[in-house]
Amino acid sequence: MVESSSSLHPSLQQWVSDNLTADIRQAVHLTNEESKKDPPEEPYRSLYSARELLSGVKAKLEACPEDLRQLDDYLVLSACVWLQIGLNHANTDELGEGEASFETCHRLLEGISNKVKTASVSMQAYNQLGVLWGNRNEQQKALEVLLKSKAVYESHIVLPPPFTETEWLLGEEVGEWGREKAFEGHHTHTLFYLAQVYGNLKQPKLSAQYCQTTLSRQLETREFDAIEWSLNCATLSQYYLNTDNYTQARHCLASASCVFSEVQKESGEEEGSTEERVEKLQQVEADLSRCWTKYCLALLRSSRERQEGPRRDTARQPLFKFDTLEVDGLESEVTSDLVESYEGAKPVFLCGQRHITASKTFYTLENRASEYVRIVQDHSQLFKLVAFFESDGSVQCRMHKRRVDMLSGVLEELNPQHYLMVCRQLMFELADTHSEMADIKIVLAAESPSPHAVAKVNKLLRAAIQYYQKFVDSFAEAGGVLPDPIDEDFLRPILLAKLHTARLHTKLVSPDTSVQTSSLQKALDLYQWLVDYGNGHAAVVNTVFGEEMAACREMLELMPLRIAAIS
Length: 567
Hints:
By secondary structure, this protein is an all-alpha fold. The chain has helices at 10-19, 21-32, 45-62, 66-69, 72-91, 95-109, 115-135, 139-156, 165-170, 175-200, 204-221, 226-242, 246-269, 275-308, 328-331, 342-359, 369-388, 393-413, 420-447, 451-473, 488-507, 513-536, 538-566.
């Protein structure tokens, strides 16, 4: 091959201008502009038209003068056309054809030594192959090609910025700054795709690192969709929550809120925002609030766990900051330190509650029931966690009563036929909540015993029993009998509900010996059922319920003695 000069070969550039440029421009216009207007019944109409033009460009290129086909520039130009054809196939969900086009693009570039000519095009083809393999759930293959794209960037970084696709296809000079901007943009896409692939490969640390780098690069260049950036940054915060790095998680959330506030301000100044745009902003605002709520829940939960068990290592890595954002005010709204008292827990609770209220403005029971219920469950957990730090039992009970009111209120509004799984979750949590309240009341009753106090305890115990029974009954087949065997996905929660119900029966108190004996007999019957089921399905039960089953066997031996003692 004849090596061309450092700029596009003038003869080839002139030939492209005379024979290809008009069709390429039209194909680009159809792809970037007209395709947005295609009707739902013909979603790919403009893309198919663009493909016809690109196929014509490819045919003309293959028939161009022999002397031009001897240039390296000809091969790069051909690779650019194949890249466009591949993108067209990918955008119309024809992945096999897209893969073949991207591979052809690479084959055309292989023998060219001047990487200033090829690097940018090569990275784009590798990136698209990475996306393609990722969409096929072939994550390892996606990783391999994306790392090749990363290697192209790293090997080229000391060289002049490579030519852009626009220069090859349209002959438009973009200058060194334009080339560098495009090249860096391709690398940012590589890092973004690597973040996704590592996440799918269950390597969250690497995924977070690449995501963080991507977000930082996007901020530096201001080349990003602000809404998407905010959501990605908020999602990154969830990784740091899982690693107990609350300082970094809070910084990500504050950064997400900061960038999104700019979008809201700009939208408020715009006239004639579409209904779809307004709804999208409302949803993003609600989703960011939900992430803040998750932050508050995780911080309170870790704080409780530290007090309940051995002190956890809360050492923090050096804080990575998005330095161009002013987020000190947002970060000051809630601590990133584990709390040790109710005074420390209350501000975290209030912050979470504010964000729950904000998220409910978009996620309503009437329009988005499933998400609304999850928000209510988060609210319930906030009360549960802050109650842990409250030393006054009466106040704790009032907090749990708030949980009962909000959970039962939602349960009454839901149709079990449409929301069975959600109803089961609510039943189980309501049972647990009544049980917690009963335990607190038992302690208070022991301090100030009275028939009224005992009656309150029994009422709460019976309510807990009722909700556990409703939960179990929701799995029953015709005739009110549980299936045998029970579906493994539901086995542990059903067995736990049976076990908790047995224990609740043993806590019921009555001055009437026959009533007391009846309660203990019900507990004994439940323990017998649990042991019988465990004997009949030993392998699976021992896997998911082993420790609890051992306790059931012990209780099966002790309960007759307890019954005999009061008979």
